[in-house]
Design brief:
By secondary structure, the protein is of the alpha+beta class. The protein has 3 domains: about 140 residues, 2-Layer Sandwich (Uridine Diphospho-n-acetylenolpyruvylglucosamine Reductase, domain 2); about 110 residues, 2-Layer Sandwich (Uridine Diphospho-n-acetylenolpyruvylglucosamine Reductase, domain 3); about 230 residues, FAD-linked oxidases, C-terminal domain (Vanillyl-alcohol Oxidase, Chain A, domain 3, 3-Layer(aba) Sandwich), CATH 3.40.462.10. It has 16 helices and 21 strands. The strands form 4 sheets. It has a 9-stranded antiparallel β-sheet with strand order 15-17-13-16-14-19-20-18-21. Strands 7, 8, 9, 10, 11 and 12 form a 6-stranded antiparallel β-sheet that branches. The longest helix is centred in the first third of the chain and has 26 residues. The chain binds flavin-adenine dinucleotide (FAD). Flavin-adenine dinucleotide (FAD) binds next to strand 5, helix 5 and strand 12. Pfam families: Cytokin-bind, FAD_binding_4.
């Protein structure tokens, strides 16, 4: 074998030095205390003065879309309505190259620039995760490069833009008698936003979360490279990005697996009540472990309510109205098991037999069986109905100090005893969802962190705060209650993991990721070495050259 020519060696040495420098700075980045310790409930950070040169260099980029440098206050807001970071610019991309050109430009500036980039779906984040203080926010909904393409056949799928809304995917795929398998409770969220977290709902016990129902992604990394990835191609990036909190790349396209949707698309929607948590959870666990079971299983906690049908809407009717009228909750804490069976109208009889059979194995309070029948699309889009009502009353844009937890099956009764029996016994500030899922249906190669048990529960405290209130419905009170719940989980060592996680220190992030932390760091160093992406998650901080 001959030796390489000396100019080639020189080139390799320069590349090696460059890579070393990047890795070196990445190491500093990991050793710095990367997270701010702000403990403010509502955090508004004014813009820092950014280098005019750097910003004006953005204007020289050849783009199909455009940057806006003014009137960007909307990009400093999210659903949580507690954190407000004003960006320096908002990119409205019209093509994938718009995104890669912008990120490559910032990547090439290296540590000379403090610019970071946050993809913004619908900003349904809770604590500023889709914001970029003095950085660039990319409005993913502007990315209209890709029409939705539905592919029928043995393994049907739909190919969509990362900024597409799940509600649009539902309507488009239904035209072909198909639909995604796994959903979120609310569909006015973007594909890129939910795939950066997980996308969990009542179908996840059977199909896994949305991140486990993806065939392929197109991603723009933190170096500005456009990479196609899947289980078979660039699989490390594929797994990194799914549940990766936006840390490794911007999802510009996704290929989502589909299943046959009910032809005339109807659903039987059932709710039953329990007064004992142990019986309620036993029944939930039974349903998610059965073969021929419901298509959706969720549940929620009812705290201090007197009217049984509060907020259930007029569409639910009791199976036995006489008995139901006699049932009184007396302000007790109750647990509602919610189940759904999809069916075609010509299969109504069979569907009724199946549901009767499934219900006969459950131990709910007999007088509390309520049911409803709605279209498949109506069921999936159910939260939008509440959204419209709340918006009309001006109650959608209040602070939302939500807390989402994943609790192992082995500790869920300890959790329920202390949390439902003590911490939130008197009042709840919004719905509290609780339902189990099967770990075996979830892919453990993604960046999502879950408890290490075969079955774990999602518990979601979906609180709304009354602005400026100092009472039990105020932000401070709810945040204190959330902290009590988190402290209890830690002290009692319940093995809890946060979903849609939010932490203030690197130690907390490290604990959250546990053994995955090392892999997470390696992937960050490989795909976003300058820590440009998703700064609002507050996991990493961009290393800046100060002299
Ligand atoms: C009413 C309501 C109901 C919800 N119900 C559920 C539910 O049932 N199940 C569930 O799992 N979640 C649920 N969520 C949470 C939801 O999944 C998250 O809010 C998620 O962030 C999606 O919102 P978004 O599309 O607006 O993303 P954003 O909030 O805009 O972004 C979320 C994160 O992803 C990053 N990001 C956004 N787009 C991309 C992209 N294309 N590529 C890479 N990174 C990106 C952002 O930078 C940010 O860090 C609900 C939220 C709300 C408000």
């Amino acid at each position: 074998m001959g030796s390489p020519p000396s100019c080639f060696l020189k080139q390799i040495t320069i590349i090696e030095i460059k890579i070393f420098m990047i890795l070196f700075i990445s190491c500093i980045l990991y050793e710095t205390n990367i997270c701010s310790s702000d403990s403010l409930d509502t955090l508004t950070v004014p813009p820092r003065s950014n280098s005019t040169n750097i910003l004006s260099s953005l204007e020289t980029l050849p783009l199909d879309g455009y940057f806006s440098f003014e009137n960007n206050h909307h990009a400093a807001r999210d659903f949580g309505n507690m954190y407000h970071f004003l960006p320096s610019a908002v990119l409205h991309p019209k093509s994938v190259p718009d995104i890669s050109t912008t990120i490559r430009h910032i990547f090439q500036m290296g540590s000379a620039s403090e610019l970071t980039v946050a993809a913004r779906g619908r900003a349904h984040s809770l604590q500023g995760q889709a914001q970029a203080h003095q950085g660039i926010v990319i409005s993913m909904e502007s990315l209209q490069a890709l029409e939705m393409q539905v592919h029928t056949g043995e393994m049907p799928y739909v190919e969509v833009s990362g900024g597409e809304l799940w509600i649009n995917i539902l309507h488009e795929t239904l035209k072909h008698g198909l639909a995604p398998k796994s959903w979120t409770d609310y569909l006015h969220l973007t594909v890129g936003g939910t795939l950066s977290n997980a996308g969990i709902s009542g179908q996840a016990f059977r199909h896994g979360p949305q991140i486990d129902n993806i065939y392929q992604l197109e991603v723009v990394t933190g170096k500005g490279e456009v990479v196609t990835c899947s289980e078979k191609q660039n699989n490390d990036l594929f797994h990194a990005v799914l549940g990766g909190l936006g840390q490794f790349g911007i999802i510009t396209r996704a290929r989502i697996s589909l299943e046959l949707a009910p032809k005339m698309a109807r659903v039987k929607w059932i709710r039953v009540l329990y007064s004992e948590f142990s019986i309620f959870s036993k029944d939930q666990e039974h349903l998610i472990s059965s073969e021929n079971t419901f298509d959706y299983v969720e549940g929620f906690v009812i705290i201090n309510r007197t009217g049984l049908l509060n907020n259930w809407g007029s569409s639910f009717s009791p199976k036995d109205p006489l008995q139901a009228r006699e049932f009184s909750s007396d302000g007790r804490t109750l647990y509602c098991l919610e189940m759904v069976k999809y069916f075609n109208p010509d299969e109504t009889k069979t569907m009724n037999q199946i549901t009767e059979n499934l219900l006969s194995k459950l131990s709910y309070i007999p007088s509390t069986l309520f049911h409803s029948e709605v279209s498949y699309a109506e069921f999936l889009d159910r939260v939008h109905v509440s959204e419209k009502k709340l918006q009309a009353k001006g109650l959608w844009e209040v602070p939302h100090p939500w807390l989402n937890l994943l609790i192992p099956k082995s500790t869920i009764s300890d959790f329920a005893k202390e949390v439902f029996g003590n911490i939130v016994m008197e009042t709840s500030n919004g719905p509290i969802l609780i339902y189990p899922v099967n770990q075996s249906k979830w892919n453990n190669k993604t960046s999502l962190v879950t408890p290490d048990e075969d079955v774990f529960y999602l518990v979601a405290f979906l609180s709304s705060a009354v602005p400026y209130s100092t009472g039990t419905d105020g932000l401070e009170h709810i945040l204190t209650k959330n902290k009590r719940i988190l402290d209890f989980c830690a002290t009692a060592q319940l093995g809890m993991k946060q979903y849609l996680p939010h932490y203030n220190t690197r130690e907390e992030w490290q604990t959250h990721f546990g053994s995955l932390w090392k892999v997470f760091l390696q992937r960050k160093s490989a795909y976003d070495p300058w820590a440009i992406l998703a700064p609002g998650q507050r996991i990493f901080q961009k290393a800046i050259r100060t002299s």
